[in-house]
Amino acid sequence: xxxxxxxxLIGARGHTGREILKLIDSHPDLELVFAASRExxxxxxxxxxxxxxxxxxxxxxxxxxxxxxxxxxxxALPNEASQPFVDAFARHSPKTILIDLSADHxxxxxxxxxxxxxxxxxxxxxxxxxxxxPGCYATAAQLAIxxxxxxxxxxxxxxxxxxxxxAGTNPSPKNDxxxxxxxxxxxxxxGHIHEREISHHLGxxxxxxxxxxxxxxxxxxxVHMTFRAPLSVETMxxxxxxxxxxxxxxxxxxxxxxxKDATGIQGAIIGGxxxxxxxxxxxxxxxxxxxxKGAAVxxxxxxxxxxxxxxxxxxxxx
Length: 318
Ligand SMILES: NC(=O)c1ccc[n+]([C@@H]2O[C@H](COP(=O)([O-])OP(=O)(O)OC[C@H]3O[C@@H](n4cnc5c(N)ncnc54)[C@H](OP(=O)(O)O)[C@@H]3O)[C@@H](O)[C@H]2O)c1
Known about the structure:
Layout: E1 5-10, H1 15-25, E2 30-36, H2 64-67, E3 72-75, H3 83-92, E4 97-100, E5 112-113, H4 116-119, E6 130-132, H5 136-145, E7 157-162, H6 177-180, E8 185-186, H7 193-202, E9 207-212, E10 219-226, H8 233-244, E11 250-253, H9 259-262, E12 268-275, E13 281-288, H10 292-307
Parallel strand pairs: 1-2, 1-3, 3-4, 4-6, 5-6, 7-9, 11-12
Antiparallel strand pairs: 7-10, 8-9, 10-13, 12-13
The structure holds NADP nicotinamide-adenine-dinucleotide phosphate.
């Protein structure tokens, strides 16, 4: 237990919270000191996920931060719920590294934007104290578009499908298992917050339409791009090979990834490079697990960078 960084998690009952609990438990340098959930307060954390014996869920109130001053705290809360906690940290524990999984700080210049494979340096993730974790679709889409950015002639179009865990645990049509059975549900055809997030951070307009599929997790993004000058399939794949050569969580392959290939894995798979006869229209596919590279794994990568640890510490690559 010595020399480990203390970490708290607020929003520990949720889908991403449970994945984060597993990753913290297997991380050699992190020690969970509190996990907060209003619904599970008083229950042993180890009843729902691996956790230190005897640790009980605490109520998710900003007051709990006066008692705990962890080195790191992850906020895995719905959008627009984080501010009271962020304010309480500023009052009680300003040195704590905060990782926010919601969209609340993804457009805030006072927060680093934590998609490490693309922005570790430009966002100064090493040593950062406030990190906005990217959205799940936004992660897949940016990884898929970034290597072709300089070649784009117009806004790329992203057709994204996600498992229903992407909609969180609050009941809605997007996580209604009965309605989703043998179904595919489009929503937010224009103006989804991830469309703004992708465009903002790539510095290029992108069109994005999300859909929910009936499985629990998994994202597949199909990206159409038009190029300023003809590209061959080989040139296109080389752009991706070079961009991700040093990044162990990103697999670049010739074959087209399918949704199931990425379910349960820590990283993302990019492949299926295809180009029209005139070389001006290209398609690429990206697959990831929305709860892992799309959320929990990325949060741990960001913590590792903020602490100056190996970026893959506590993350198994499979
Ligand atoms: N699911 C994904 O694939 C995914 C991927 C990337 C990012 N994200 C983002 O990550 C965040 C968490 O997503 P999720 O899917 O884990 O959501 P979720 O399953 O709905 O869990 C939300 C958690 O927040 C707690 N909570 C809800 N409202 C609260 C409030 N007002 N104050 C304190 N606690 C509150 C809930 O527990 P109690 O009600 O028991 O307190 C629960 O633990 C969201 O912002 C989401 O957009 C999700």
